[in-house]
Specification:
Length: 78
């Protein structure tokens, strides 16, 4: 996936899925310059500097973090 420069057309999101604890979760990731953003309609957005990581590998990690944060908040709520 090529990196997006802000003076160009906005990046198109790439859809992907992960499986955690036997459940499937899906999200979309975009790369805008050095920043990768992962969005889940139910759990929000998480951004991180891409560095040398492959975009889809980092996107899967960020979506897993969103899932675990969402689950922790849900368990903490009465």
């Amino acid at each position: 996936m090529t990196r997006h420069k802000s003076s160009e057309r906005p990046p198109v999101g790439r859809h992907f899925r992960i499986t955690l604890d036997g459940r499937e979760f899906e999200g979309t990731y975009t790369v805008n310059g050095p920043i990768l953003a992962v969005e889940s309609l139910l759990m929000g957005v998480k951004r991180r500097q891409l560095g040398d990581a492959h975009p889809e590998v980092l996107a899967r990690l960020l979506l897993a973090e969103l899932v675990y944060q969402h689950e922790a908040l849900r368990r903490a709520s009465p």
